[in-house]
């Protein structure tokens, strides 16, 4: 494919080995390989492919890219600092192809790549099932220029327009959800990549540890290295690549969107079925009559069957059990141990360490007890001896079955990465000459926002602050510029009449069919569960 030839050549032949930024000078040095290459020339000779107006004339053979504030001077045959733009025969070209997706009814309306493989047969536009993404569309900077593509099409008899641009986001980050009970680090602890601070641990959610990474503070407010490393980590996470993170006072975790987290070198298998109390509630009936006592060990809320409301309703007698920690409500205990990577997200390896001595007024020799973690990963069975001390015994098969039932009810542990960016700034000017009208149109649900074709969640309140699940986006959707900032696709789709009403750049609206002359497609492997 032409675009692969192009990008590979720029990647290999014109690899950036150093660049230096001054106010208006960015020096790009490539390796010593000759820039002349007939194949490369041929690759770009197709009319309009990858071309952009993001250039100005510069001295010598160099051209100047003005698609972002870095303003690279780019030698012929070389790529700019971001590897997104290159100088091909004196023309600034966008190295990556512009991605167009095709909706298919057979996939339940899911978006799939416009073309799954092979060369383009020229039949680009199967209106209205084609969706023009911003991936590879290019950036307009500064944003008073109209967005790179403003494309009209007819959908169900209604004239629609989609405005696409690759936004440059200095205000952006990722929210990471890591499905694990294991302790990753204290809340607010610094999260590092390559030793640099790139974010922090934030509040845990049900069965998951949460990280907040990136943001303008780490991108721009620290050292140059901190900004660069933050940008790299955000881009890799957003492009579904693995990134190793270390947490001050906590664990090392490898995070990759859509894959299990690897905590201190061990891949997590399951997220918990619930907290200890919820586990008691779910399985109390299945334990009734098979065991006298059950303790579900959990770093947050440890559950005790005989004291829990579920046990009371089942008339389970008191057992004289004595728990450590702080009793919240009957059968629910906080802080039975410190957090860690042991049983139920605590630091214990011996579950008996959360128990005090049994009360001889209620306990009796032979009393049976199951102790289990919230994932069923850890479990042990005990019987009280004559001195009312728990002695571990072989677990009866029906209790083993109940532990397996807990495991069965645990969902696979995954990492989830949501990219979050603020699109309520200057890029709106590429859509309309009255930016606030775009914001209002989004709030009024007249304009649908997508990122690489994936649906986004737009936060209520001011601005257009959106979040998107990166696994729902085509591969390689994110780029960067060394300001540093992330480059992310964003599309605004609305009725043509509404677009005119909000002051859209109507003289730049082009029909979908016109993309035939400017658009290249990229074959992408379809990964189940992922859009592309
Ligand atoms: S970093 Fe990329 S977008 Fe920015 S000026 Fe350089 S080549 Fe253009």
Which molecules other than protein and nucleic acid are bound? Answer: iron/sulfur cluster
How would a textbook summarize the main sheet?
11 strands, antiparallel
**Shape annotation:** elongated
Structural class category: alpha+beta
Read across the widest sheet, the strand sequence of neighbours is: 20-19-18-17-14-15-16-13-28-32-31
In percent, how much strand structure appears in the residues? 25-35%
Radius of gyration over C-alpha positions, nearest whole angstrom: 29 Å
What is the number of helices?
A: 9
Proportion in helices? 10-25%
The overall strand count is 35
Low-confidence regions: 1-53, 104-128, 523-529
Write down the overall mean pLDDT. Answer: 83
Ends: how far apart? 18 Å
What does this structure look like?
Strand 26 and strand 27 form a beta hairpin. With 532 residues, this protein is α+β, with helices and mostly antiparallel strands. It is elongated and about 95 Å long. Iron/sulfur cluster (SF4) binds next to loops. Iron/sulfur cluster binds next to loops.
Short description:
With 532 residues, the chain is α+β, with helices and mostly antiparallel strands. It has 9 helices and 35 strands.
């Amino acid at each position: 494919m032409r675009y692969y030839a192009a990008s590979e050549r720029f990647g290999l032949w014109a690899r950036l080995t150093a660049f230096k930024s001054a106010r208006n000078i960015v020096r790009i040095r490539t390796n010593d390989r000759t820039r002349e290459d007939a194949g490369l020339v041929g690759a770009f000779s197709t009319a309009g492919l990858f071309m952009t107006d993001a250039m100005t004339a510069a001295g010598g053979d160099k051209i100047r890219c003005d698609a972002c504030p870095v303003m690279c001077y780019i030698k012929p045959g070389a790529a700019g600092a971001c590897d997104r733009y290159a100088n091909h025969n004196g023309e600034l070209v966008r190295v990556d192809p512009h991605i167009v997706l095709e909706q298919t009814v057979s996939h339940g309306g899911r978006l799939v790549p416009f073309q799954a493989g092979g060369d383009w047969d020229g039949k680009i536009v199967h209106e209205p099932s084609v969706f023009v993404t911003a991936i590879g569309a290019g950036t307009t900077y500064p944003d008073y220029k109209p967005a790179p593509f403003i494309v009209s099409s007819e959908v169900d008899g209604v004239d629609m327009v989609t405005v696409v641009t690759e936004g440059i986001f200095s205000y952006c980050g990722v929210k990471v959800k890591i499905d694990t009970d294991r302790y990753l680090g204290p809340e607010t602890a610094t999260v590092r990549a390559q030793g640099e601070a790139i974010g922090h641990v934030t509040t845990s959610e049900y069965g998951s540890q949460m990280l907040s990474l990136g943001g303008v503070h780490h991108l721009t407010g620290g050292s140059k290295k901190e900004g660069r490393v933050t940008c790299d980590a955000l881009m890799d996470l957003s492009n579904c690549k693995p990134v190793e993170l270390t947490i001050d006072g906590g664990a090392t975790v490898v995070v990759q969107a859509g894959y299990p987290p690897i905590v201190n070198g061990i891949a997590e298998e399951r997220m918990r079925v619930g907290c200890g109390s919820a586990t008691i509630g779910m399985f109390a009936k299945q334990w009734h009559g098979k065991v006298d006592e059950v303790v579900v060990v959990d770093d947050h809320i440890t559950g005790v069957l005989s004291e829990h409301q579920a046990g009371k309703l089942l008339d389970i007698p008191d057992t004289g059990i004595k728990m450590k920690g702080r009793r919240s409500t009957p059968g629910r205990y906080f802080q039975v141990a410190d957090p860690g990577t042991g049983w139920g997200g605590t630091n214990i390896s011996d579950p008996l360490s959360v128990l005090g001595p049994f009360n001889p007024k209620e306990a009796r020799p032979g009393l049976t007890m199951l102790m289990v973690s919230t994932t069923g990963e850890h479990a042990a069975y005990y019987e009280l001896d004559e001195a009312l001390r728990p002695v571990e015994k072989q677990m009866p098969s029906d209790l083993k079955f109940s532990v397996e039932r807990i495991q069965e009810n645990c969902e696979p542990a995954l990492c989830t990465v949501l990219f979050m960016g603020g699109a309520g700034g200057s890029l709106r000017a590429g859509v309309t000459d009255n930016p606030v009208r775009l914001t209002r149109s989004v709030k009024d649900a007249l304009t649908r926002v997508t990122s690489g074709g994936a649906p986004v969640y737009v936060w209520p309140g001011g601005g257009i602050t959106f979040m998107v699940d990166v696994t729902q986006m085509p591969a390689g959707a994110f780029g960067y510029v060394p300001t540093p900032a992330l480059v992310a696709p964003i599309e605004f789709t609305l009725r043509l009449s509404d677009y005119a009403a909000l002051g859209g750049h109507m003289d730049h609206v082009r029909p979908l069919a016109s993309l035939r002359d400017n658009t290249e497609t990229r074959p992408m492997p379809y990964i189940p569960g992922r859009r592309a």
